Amino acid sequence: MQDQPGGRPPAPATLETTLAGMDQAAARFTSVVGNLEYTKVTVIVNDRSTERGKIYFEKTKGKTRVMLAFQEPAEKYVLFQGSKVSLYRPKIAEVEEYDVGRRQSLVEQFLLLGFGTPGSELEKSYRVTWRGEESLDGQRVAHLELIPKAASVTAQLKQIELWLSTVDWQPVQQKFWEPSGDYLIARYRDLKQNAKIPGKSFQLPIRGKVKTVRPQGGS
């Protein structure tokens, strides 16, 4: 824990200061790039799988672009632009395309929750519970529990936990609980905010000839 000028330790975070910090951070937010780790846990069979890669996220003029570029254990790219999601697996030379349409807000909550999210907007969509200030990856974090208010969301997401840096109020970790009890943990490291991201970072790195498929429900 770093001291403030004069040797005084920083005041402990509270729900109120966290939501206010998120409001201030959201006003300045345009982009973020960094390392990510997704761990999916299927409880009933005690299965745990982890993917690692990078996240590129840009939010300008009301438009959002996100690229998840996984490198481990297999190369995989997930591109989110508007209502379209594209999944590219180089190993099988295939691109899956989905038009999420009315489910766009749910997809955004999986991909973007906490990145540039105002605290005031968080309270509109969730019942927010303060879980305290903790230490995670060597930094002070504010821990929030979120219960979606919309029935359409709770059918897919029972609960979300969010750990935010008390320095820049961006996510360090997210945990998404499904109604089945299965969950996904997203960890973020070495995040750089508001840097200009090259346009090619939001393009699928197609190599050679690929097959494009649009699964049922994807259009």
Please provide a written account of the structure.
There is one protein chain. This protein has 219 residues and is of the alpha+beta class. It has one domain: outer membrane lipoprotein receptor (LolB), chain A (Clam). It contains four helices and twelve strands. It has a twelve-stranded mixed sheet. The longest helix has 14 residues. The chain is globular and about 60 Å long. It starts with 14 loop residues before the first helix and ends in a 6-residue tail after the last strand. The N terminus is likely disordered.
In brief:
The chain has helices at about 15-30, 105-110, 120-125, 150-155, and strands at about 30-40, 45-60, 65-70, 75-80, 85-90, 95-100, 125-135, 140-150, 160-165, 170-175, 185-195, 210-215.
Poorly predicted regions are: 1-5
Structural class: alpha+beta
CATH superfamily: Lipoprotein localisation LolA/LolB/LppX
- Rg value: 18 Å
Domain module tally: 1
Count of helical stretches: 4
Biggest beta sheet attributes: 12 strands, mixed
Strand order of the largest sheet: 7-8-9-10-11-1-2-3-4-5-6-12
Features:
single chain, 219 residues, alpha+beta, outer membrane lipoprotein receptor (LolB), chain A, 12-stranded mixed sheet
List the helices and strands and how they pair.
Layout: H1 15-28, E1 31-42, E2 47-60, E3 63-72, E4 76-81, E5 84-89, E6 94-99, H2 104-112, H3 119-125, E7 126-136, E8 139-148, H4 151-154, E9 159-165, E10 171-177, E11 183-193, E12 211-213
Parallel strand pairs: 6-12
Antiparallel strand pairs: 1-2, 1-11, 2-3, 3-4, 4-5, 5-6, 7-8, 8-9, 9-10, 10-11
